[in-house]
Every structure is written in C-alpha cells, then in structure tokens.
C-alpha cells in the first residue's frame, strides 16, 4: 500500500513493466547489504554494482540506483559480462529507463553479436515497449543468425506491427506491408507456413491491405494446411465472410450451407443471409435491365424461397430451432433493410410476424428478449429518420396485449410460463420506451402485480429465477417513473422518494436472491445517487469483483467515497484500482512475450490493443486522480502533507492534452448496466439515469489533474505557474459546463481562490483581503447557511443530493487553504498571521455549522425518511403500501442504510475539520 | 443465438454478465492471458447475436505419452443463457480441437461432487468418473473444503478406452499433475 502510494505521489507509477511478484518477495535490503559486503573487498566488482543498483531500484532508492547503474553502463568493457548485463537491464527496467535498458543489450551485442539470448532480449524489450522498428531490426538479426522459421515469422509480425502502429508515412507503410506479404507468400510456397497461427498472421497482413480475395484464396488452399483450416471453426466462418466480401455469393451460400449443416453458428447464418440478400439484389438489377421487367419479383423470389426452405429445414432439427428461426427473423430484417420488404412479405409474411412467431416459440427461454429486442427496434424505428413508425408500433402493441395478461395469469403454473411473462414484460417496457412514453403513471402501471409475483408468491418463496427478473423489472419501472415524473429540480423531493421506493424493491429482491448481481448493480447506483456510500460499498464488496471489472464497476465506487466525505476507506479502494492498472501493463507484456515464444501470433495485436485500452482509459485516469485527490486528506501532519505536494511530480500528474483525451478508451461494460432498452437509447438507459454525478470524463480528469499541480506549485513557491494553472482550470471548467457536477464547479472556484490568495499573500506587499474574503465566502456558502426545516421533504432531498456533497467540497477547500497557510508560514511570508486568523475563524464557524448538521442528522433525519420517503407520494403509493405491508423490515433497513450512510459521512467531515486546525 | 469463437483479450472488457455470477470464478488477468498465449484455440467464447458474452471455456493440453490429453480449466455460462446447449457447444469445441488438432487420448475435468447439475451435464456429454481427488478445492487457497471428481471422456485415439481405467480411485491433488 505504502509503496504504491509513494509511486503515485512521486509520479513514478508509470513503471508498469516492473515484475510485481518479485517485488513482493525477496529481501532487497539484504541483497544490497550482500553487494556492499562484496564491494568493500572489491570496489570495482561490476556485477555486484549492477545487482546492487537493481536491488536499490526495487527498494525505492531511485537516485542511488540510477547513479550506480549509469556508472556501470559507462564503464568500458562492463557489458562483456552476462551478469552485468542481466543486473543492469533489470535495474534500468525497474527504473523505467527504457533507452538505457536497450543500450545495455546493444552494448552487449557489440561483444557478442551472434548471441541468440541477447538478441531475443532486445526483441522482447522492444516488443514490450511498442518499439516496432527496433523490434523488427532485432527480429531480422535473429533470423539471420538462427535461420529458424520462427524468427522469420517474428520479422513478418514486426513488419505488420510497424505498419499498423508506427507513425509511418503511407508509402513506407505500404512498403512494410508488401514486404510482409511477400515473405508470407514465399513461406507458403516453400512449405514454411505450417501452423494456423502463422496463417493468421498472413491473413492479418492481407486484411490490412483489404485483399479479401487473396485471403479467401489462401483459406481455400490445398495441402496439409487445408485440414487445419477445416478443423478451425473461426477460419471456416471467416472463409465464408470473405466470399461475401469478394462478391462470390453463390460460393458463399454453398459454403455456408455446408458449414451450417454440420454445426450452427450465428455468424455463419449472418453470412448466409447477407449472401442471399446480395444475390437477390444482383438478380433484381439484372431483371431491371430487361425490356420487360413485369416478372421482376416472381423471378427473383426463388433465391429467397430456397433460403427460407433451408432455414426451415434446419428449424426442424432437434436443438436447432432457435438459431434457424432467428435467422428467418434476420432474413426478414435484412430484406427490409435492402428495400425488399415486399419480397419479405411474400416469402416470410413480413418482419412483424416473424418476430412474434419467434417470441411465441421461445419466450420460455430467458435469452428470448435479448435475441429479439434488436429486431423490434429495427422494425419500429425508421433507419434514416430515426422516427417511430406508429403503425408498426401499434401492431406490436396489439400483439403484446393479446398475450401479456394470459402470460401473467399462467405464470404460477410453471417456471417456463413465468419466464414467458418475464420476456413479455421486457417487451412491454421496450415498446413503451420506443414510443417515448413520458407519462410516469403509465410506467408504474402494473408494478403491483409484478411485486405480488416477484416477492409474495409461492414461486418467490421457492426463489425461482423468474421472480428476481420480475422484481428487477418492477424496480426499473419505479426508477423510470421517478426520473420521468420528477426530473425538474423543484420536484426532486418526489424523485428521491420514488427512488427510495425502487431501492426498497431492489433490496427485497436482493434479500430473496443474494446472487442477483443485476439487482445489486442497480441498488449501488441508487444508493450513490442518494449519497449513501456505505451501503453501496457493502453491496459492491459482496460482488465478485476482480481485475478487469474495475473498469466497469470499480471506478463507479472509486471516488464517490471521496465525494461523499468517506476519504480514507475509499482511498484503499482507489489504490486497489491504481495497483491493478499499474500491474496490468507488465502482465500483458509478459503475455505478449509468451505469445512470441509459443508462436501464437494471433494474439499479438489483440494483446497490444488490450494493453492500450487499459493504459489509455478513462477509468485508469479517473482512478488515479481519485487516489491523488484522496491522498491530500490522509491523516498526517501538515508538514507531511505539504512535503507530498513538494515532492509530487508535476509532469507525471500533468493534464492529458486534448488529442490524448480524445483517444482515451471508455472500457465500461455498459451492457451489464443497461435498462431493458438498447444502449443506443440513452434517454432510457439506467446507466445514464442513475449516474450519481456526471460521468468522470476528460473534463473531470483535466480538473483533477490541474488541482494537484496547483498545490505542487504553491508548495514550491512557483507563483507564475500557480496563476497560469489557475487560469487554465477556469477555462477547463467553463468549457466543461454541465459535464462537471455542481460540486466540481464549486471546488474549482474554491481552488482558484486558494491559488489567488497564495499569489497575493506570498508577495507581502499587496492586499489579499479580497482573496481571503472570497475564499471564506465560498466555504461558508458551501455549508448549510441556516438550520433548515428538519421535517420538510425538501431538506431530506437536499441531504440526499446536495448537503453532504457540498460540505465535502467545503472541507476539501478548507484543507487546501490550511496547506497554503502552512506554506506561507514556512516561506516566512508576513501575511501568515492574517491568513491564520481568517482560517481559524473559518474553522470555528464551519465546525459549528457541520456540528449543527450532525445534530440535525441525528435528531431528525431518520424520522424525516420515515415521514417523507417511506409513506411516499401518491404515484408510488401502491408499491410503497405493498412494501410496508409485506416487507416492513426491508423498508426499515433501507431507511437505516440511508441514514447511517449520511451520518457516517458527516462524522468523517467533523473529524477532518477537528483534525485540521 | 450464439457464435462460438476464439476468446480474445479484449473480450475481458465485456464479460461481466458472465463473471459476476456467484458461481463463476474470476481469475487474475495473467491467468487468462497465459491461456490465450499458450492455447489460443482452446479458449473459446459464446457470443450472442448482439455481440455480448454468453459464456466461455478455458482449456489446455498437457501430459506425456498415453496421458496426453485436453483439460477443461473453466466452463461457465451466464445465468440467462443456460439451458440453451451452450455448455455442450463449448465442450464440443474443446473436444474437437483436442482430438483433431492435438491428437489427444482423452479430455478430463474436475468438478465439485456437490455440483450435481454440472455432473449430470458432463455425464450426459459422455464423461465418466475416473477418480476422486482428495481436498482439491480450497477456500482462499488454504482451507480444504471439498474433494473433486476427476471426470474423463476417451477420444478416438484411445480406441480401447484405456484412459478411463485406473487402479486408484482416490488420489491427492499432487498426484494429478501431469
């Protein structure tokens, strides 16, 4: 923990290639002592020096390690020794000094130019660090020395990567690709292309040049490779896709039928349908050219009819009906998209009928909705205008109405029938969203019967899966109704009451089925929305979160604690995230090395892309900035905190420039968080609806990159940079607009005032009364001005949305101000006394306000929740009554969770104000 | 409807609906990457029509001589995607690669005796109980919680199905290393 923190503070966190397991084991201090013992006897022992520099680098003695390792590197002849090479390369790698690491290998190669191990290491260090030109040179060297096919493929892979990722001019890129293609082609002719992995590299080379026809030729090659291709389902499918791309529709259809006869595969179906529709298009084009085209459609029909017959034949095979039937829906949709709706109607009776035929047949499967949902969208939303086709929408509504009540009544009979109802309820939700239904009451309609079944039926007692789904839908409807009905600021008391109702439903669902991660995800979002961090974190901890899921969920929690006054506990989670991102680069690089060694070339570009997405992700940046932010509030003396600001590497925490910002990846798996509507309908998406604060994005990252830099420059008395960065902060915040939360804007204002105060006060000759007054005013304003009416729903709503968040920002600004006061004192500024006095008074008045808030919280808030949320508004009366009658304990527990979450936050804030004096 | 294809590292950004299920083990990134780097054709994913993950299977090949075999390291299917035959599809892909690409004698897997549903499924796929592995499953890698059933299915190369015959019905985890 401490090491990681230091790495962050000192800006050396980018050393991602460090071998994490070796960091944890091994006693570096002992290693250093052993080396020193040797060096006392033999001061010029270069291997010991190299090893010691490595151990020092691992032990965090960066400066000494760098000095010693450079000295060894510059010693003539030192690189003759393999031990020196080993130790130095590790030291430079640990220190993140890439050029020096490469210099070790290139220097060593001067003594042993044909050393395979050294050349391989040079190749790997280049590959780990995306130095494709150097990687290529090393591969060529190896290939010349060993004459092995393996190293020839390393050359080809390097050429491809160089063309793909290096910033080469187009002519050079083409040259690299041509060379790679020729080498691969020659390998094929010479029988040196033996494995599927080598073939995949060749295919990648061709694909990068859009040579689809050539790719298809390679995949239809005869000989030993042919059998390997046939045994690889991915290549077989790719082969069909290439035929489609090469306009070889008959061949594609033949190949698809042959493949699908043996084993079904959705991509295979897609290729088959694409080829059919394209062939139809060609046929119609030919017919149009004829003088009499009156027989146009009938002549073209057989093309589609044959496909329909084939699909229907497959649909009769046991276990294959679902795929083949969905393919018929896909065919109808594809025909419509290509402008052949009339043919779709003649051959398939239209998309609408196909959709409902599919629903009727497979609604007992949980996957049915996921399968069919995109086709509802395709059918109802006109592709060009994005407008709703009301006639089609009404058709589907009618179809649904005919089925849904019967399904509801039958649900109790069996789990399959219950699942049918679940799917129809999901379709009801989708159609409602597609129709842009903004009447909140219609969203709540039917929630009572959902709750009855989901929580209070005999099926619920048996914990059947359908019950969790039904509870989830009920929760979603309540969330949707809340946001639709009460999105105006003045209506927030009702919004929060509605969300409380939804939360009670979700918690009841969780209680019934603790394994439902969807219920938990939704509950986390709402708790965070209502500023209740503790329960959100507890649910998060109960999820199976590890590794990559930080990207989706970890960052949701990371930072919210900081925003809600829970600095320390949240910081731990942030550092878990920071550690994950730091270590990932090295792990993926090892995977990359392993791919070369195992000759599994198909993964190389995938690994590079994966590493790039993690390294340059919004989530990584946000997690890191959250950690930096929280670190300023860690318990410790002011001297320690200010020392951190002094030592912080301003370059490392520098704001990402705009071009890089745009390239940042958003790695969230939004599918797992979406509502029942597709992700291209953000208005109806739970991820958007229940986002507790604006999504930490590039503006957010910029703000939280500039603030620590300002503090660094204050601590190092660099007034010019403080002022420049303060201006930059203002510009970023103004440009960001609503993409930053109100609290973010408040913080920006406070930090700029802190910066202005310092810039004026440090001078000593200028008045800083105005700056001091502004700063005090901002902190005072952020804390509740007067004791509000404790029982009012507005106060309760303010508590959920604003009060704690504002108080947290006030605390943060105050702590920065304290640091400035300390720094002024250390810099012996004559202004110190006045600033100290003002801050002392600010602390006194603010503590009184926060204590009053705490008192308000402890005396009234729990009762206010009972009064204003539990009984709820008229719109949520039915679900609220149900929950009151059937799940009173859950309602109490949710109310308690909200209260205790706020209480804990306020308590933390009081402690911070008391601590920072 | 699904496509079974090779797993890619980038799929790890998109498999929460599978891995957040309580019964699915989430491993360290290195673990997934090591499988991808060594046996890319034995790590497969079932992808739905809309491109989301439905389930995946990690496998490997190991052993010497007559013990040369395919091994199922992990097989998991998202809750909403069960009862669709995906488990069979994923197992088929491993068995086929083990047989046709790697020329193995058999495929084996370990399963908790308490996981009756999974055992029934594997039996349905043709797997038989080969032996019991003592205290194989552990909590946090320390406390033994449960034995494992080592189940096997002979492939075409093992004509006489000798790989299914053993003299020792109970072994320790160390004895299962190839």
TrEMBL record, chain A:
Superkingdom of origin: Eukaryota
Q: Name one GO cellular component term.
A: NatB complex
Checking InterPro entries in the record gives: NAA25_NatB_aux_su, TPR-like_helical_dom_sf
Alphabetized Gene3D superfamilies for the sequence: 1.25.40.1040
Instruction: State the similarity comment.
Output: Belongs to the MDM20/NAA25 family.
* PANTHER family xrefs: N-ALPHA-ACETYLTRANSFERASE 25, NATB AUXILIARY SUBUNIT, N-TERMINAL ACETYLTRANSFERASE-RELATED
Stated name of the protein: Mitochondrial distribution and morphology
Please report the organism this UniProt entry assigns to the protein. Answer: Coemansia erecta
From TrEMBL, chain B:
Q: Which GO terms describe its cellular component?
A: NatB complex
GO molecular-function annotation terms?
Answer: protein N-terminal-methionine acetyltransferase activity
InterPro entries named in the record: Acyl_CoA_acyltransferase, GNAT_dom, NatB_acetyltransferase_subunit
PROSITE patterns found in the cross-reference section: GNAT (PS51186)
Q: What is its EC number?
A: 2.3.1.254
Q: Which residues form the N-acetyltransferase domain?
A: 2-156
Listed A to Z, the keywords are: Acyltransferase, Transferase
| Broad enzyme group | transferase
Record-linked CDD domains: NAT_SF (cd04301)
Q: What is this protein called?
A: N-acetyltransferase
């Amino acid at each position: 923990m401490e090491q990681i923190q230091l790495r962050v503070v000192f800006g050396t966190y980018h050393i991602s290639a460090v071998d994490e397991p070796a960091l944890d084991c091994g006693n570096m201090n002992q290693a250093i002592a052993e080396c020193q013992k040797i060096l006392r006897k033999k001061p010029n022992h270069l291997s010991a020096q190299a090893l010691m520099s490595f151990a020092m680098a691992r032990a965090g003695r960066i400066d000494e390690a760098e000095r010693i390792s450079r000295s060894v590197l510059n010693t003539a002849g030192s690189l003759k020794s393999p031990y020196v090479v080993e130790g130095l390369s590790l030291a430079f790698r640990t220190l993140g000094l890439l050029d020096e690491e490469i210099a070790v290998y290139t220097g060593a190669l001067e003594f042993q130019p044909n050393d395979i191990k050294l050349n391989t290491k040079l190749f790997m260090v280049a590959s780990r660090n995306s130095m494709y030109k150097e990687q290529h040179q090393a591969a060529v060297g190896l290939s010349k020395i060993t004459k092995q096919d393996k190293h020839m493929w390393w050359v080809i892979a390097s050429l491809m990567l160089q063309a793909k990722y290096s910033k080469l001019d187009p002519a050079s890129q083409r040259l690299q690709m041509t060379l790679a293609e020729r080498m691969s082609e020659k390998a094929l002719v010479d029988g040196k292309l033996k494995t599927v992995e080598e073939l995949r590299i060749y295919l990648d080379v061709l694909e990068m040049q859009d040579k689809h026809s050539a790719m298809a030729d390679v995949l239809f090659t005869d000989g030993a490779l042919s059998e390997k291709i046939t045994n690889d389902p991915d290549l077989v499918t790719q082969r069909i896709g290439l035929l489609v791309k090469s306009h070889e529709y008959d061949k594609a259809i033949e190949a698809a039928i042959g493949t699908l006869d043996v084993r079904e595969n959705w991509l295979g179906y897609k290729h088959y349908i694409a080829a059919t529709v394209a062939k139809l298009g060609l046929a119609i084009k030919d017919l149009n050219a004829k003088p009499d085209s009156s027989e146009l459609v009938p002549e073209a029909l057989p093309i589609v009819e044959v496909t329909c017959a084939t699909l229907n034949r497959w649909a009769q095979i046991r276990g294959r009906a679902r795929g083949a039937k969905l393919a018929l829906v896909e065919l109808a949709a594809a025909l419509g998209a290509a402008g052949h709706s009339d043919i779709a109607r003649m051959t398939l009776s239209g998309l609408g009928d196909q959709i409902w035929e599919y629903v009727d047949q497979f609604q007992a499967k949980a996957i049915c909705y996921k399968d069919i949902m995109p086709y509802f969208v395709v059918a109802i939303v006109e592709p060009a205008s994005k407008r709703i086709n009301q006639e089609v929408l009404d058709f589907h509504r009618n179809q649904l109405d005919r089925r849904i009540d019967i399904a509801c009544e039958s649900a109790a009979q069996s789990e399959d029938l219950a699942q049918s109802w679940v799917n129809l309820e999901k379709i009801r939700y989708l159609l409602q969203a597609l129709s842009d239904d903004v009447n909140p009451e219609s969203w709540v309609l039917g929630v009572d019967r959902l709750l009855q079944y989901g929580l209070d039926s005999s099926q619920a007692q048996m914990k059947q899966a359908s019950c969790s789904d039904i509870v989830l839908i009920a929760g979603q409807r309540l969330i949707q109704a809340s946001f639709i009905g009460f999105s105006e600021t003045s209506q927030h008391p009702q919004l929060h009451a509605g969300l409380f109702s939804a939360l009670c439903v979700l918690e009841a669902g969780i209680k019934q089925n603790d394994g439902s991660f969807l219920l938990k995800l939704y509950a986390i979002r709402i708790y965070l929305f209502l500023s209740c961090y503790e329960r959100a974190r507890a649910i998060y901890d109960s999820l199976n979160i590890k590794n990559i899921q930080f990207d989706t969920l970890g960052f949701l929690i990371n930072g919210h604690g900081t925003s809600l006054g829970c600095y320390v506990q949240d910081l731990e989670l942030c550092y878990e995230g920071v550690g994950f991102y730091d270590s990932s680069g090295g792990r993926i690089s090892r995977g990359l090395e392993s791919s070369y060694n195992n000759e599994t070339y198909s993964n190389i570009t995938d690994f590079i892309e994966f590493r790039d997405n993690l390294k340059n992700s919004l989530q990584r940046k946000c997690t890191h900035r959250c950690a930096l932010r929280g670190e300023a509030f860690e318990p410790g003396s002011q001297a320690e905190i200010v020392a951190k600001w002094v030592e912080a590497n301003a370059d490392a925490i520098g704001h990402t420039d705009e071009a890089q910002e745009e390239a940042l990846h958003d790695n969230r798996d939004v599918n797992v968080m979406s509502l029942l509507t597709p992700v291209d309908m953000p208005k109806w998406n739970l991820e958007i609806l229940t986002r507790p604060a604006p999504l930490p994005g590039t503006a957010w990252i910029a703000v939280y990159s500039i603030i620590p830099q300002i503090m660094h420059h204050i601590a190092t008395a660099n007034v010019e940079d403080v002022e420049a960065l303060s201006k930059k902060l203002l510009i970023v915040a103004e440009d960001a607009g609503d993409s930053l939360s109100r609290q973010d804007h408040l913080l920006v204002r406070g930090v700029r005032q802190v910066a202005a105060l310092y810039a004026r006060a440090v001078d000593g000759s200028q008045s800083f009364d105005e700056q001091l007054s502004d700063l005090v005013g901002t902190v005072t304003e952020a804390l509740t001005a007067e004791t509000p009416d404790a029982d009012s729903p507005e106060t309760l709503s303010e508590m959920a949305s604003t009060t704690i968040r504002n108080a947290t920002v006030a605390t943060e600004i105050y702590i920065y101000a304290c640091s400035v006061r300390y720094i002024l004192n250390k810099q012996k500024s004559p202004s110190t006394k006045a600033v100290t006095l003002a801050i002392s008074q600010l602390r006194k008045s603010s503590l009184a306000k926060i204590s009053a808030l705490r008192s308000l919280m402890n005396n009234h808030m729990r009762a206010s929740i009972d009064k204003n949320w539990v009984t709820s508004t008229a719109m949520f009366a039915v679900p609220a009554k149900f929950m009151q009658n059937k799940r009173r304990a859950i309602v109490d527990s949710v109310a308690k969770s909200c209260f205790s979450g706020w209480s804990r936050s306020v308590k933390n804030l009081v402690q911070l104000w008391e601590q920072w004096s | 409807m699904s496509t079974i294809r090779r797993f890619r590292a980038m799929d790890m950004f998109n498999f929460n609906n599978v891995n957040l299920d309580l019964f699915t083990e989430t491993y360290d990134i290195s673990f997934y990457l090591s499988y991808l780097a060594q046996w890319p054709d034995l790590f497969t994913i079932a992808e739905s029509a809309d491109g989301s993950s439905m389930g995946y299977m990690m496998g490997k090949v190991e052993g010497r001589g007559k013990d040369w075999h395919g091994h199922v390291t992990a097989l998991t299917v998202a809750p909403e995607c069960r009862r669709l035959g995906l488990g069979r599809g994923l197992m088929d892909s491993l068995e086929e690669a083990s047989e046709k690409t790697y020329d193995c004698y058999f495929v084996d897997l370990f399963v908790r005796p308490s996981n009756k549903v999974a055992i029934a499924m594997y039996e349905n796929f043709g797997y038989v109980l080969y032996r019991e592995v003592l205290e194989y499953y552990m909590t946090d890698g320390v406390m033994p919680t449960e034995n494992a059933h080592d189940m096997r299915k002979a492939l075409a190369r093992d004509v006489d199905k000798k790989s299914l015959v053993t003299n020792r019905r109970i072994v320790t985890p160390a004895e299962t290393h190839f």
